[in-house]
């Protein structure tokens, strides 16, 4: 994910603006969804055969939206005390025997 130094700069950026008061897990999750939607909007109506051209033409916008997603996701990891390396390393959700060769998401455990 981010280096500890970069995360600290982001946290300082947030503190300077007194934004922690707005950054509840629910609000950050909602903001993450919005930013991911803005990233998706760049590709809306783009045919697969046109993807390279869209990426080239919209590279700066894609980079900005990816940065927004990364920042908000980093705040969520930090605020919830979740180690992103451990979270990403957990592949038990997709066992090979159920996931190999399929794009279908495995069924979730019943709550």
Briefly characterize the structure:
With 111 residues, this protein is mostly helical. 64% of the residues lie in helices and 0% in strands. It has one domain: MazG-like (Helix Hairpins, Orthogonal Bundle).
- How many β-strand runs? 0
**Which architecture name does CATH use?**
Orthogonal Bundle
Strand content: under 5%
Order of helices and strands: HHHHHH
Low-confidence stretches: none
Q: Tell me about the largest β-sheet.
A: none
Our count of domains comes out at: 1
Going by CATH, the homologous superfamily would be MazG-like
Description:
- This protein is mostly helical.
- The mean pLDDT is 92.
- α2 (25-43) runs antiparallel to α4 (59-80).
- The radius of gyration is 17 Å and the shape is globular.
- It has six helices and no strands.
- It has one domain: Helix Hairpins (Orthogonal Bundle), CATH 1.10.287.
- It has helices at residues 4-16, 25-43, 51-57, 59-80, 84-89, 96-99.
How would you summarize the topology of this molecule?
Elements: H1 4-16, H2 25-43, H3 51-57, H4 59-80, H5 84-89, H6 96-99
Which descriptors would you attach to this protein?
111 residues, mainly alpha, 6 helices, 0% strand, globular
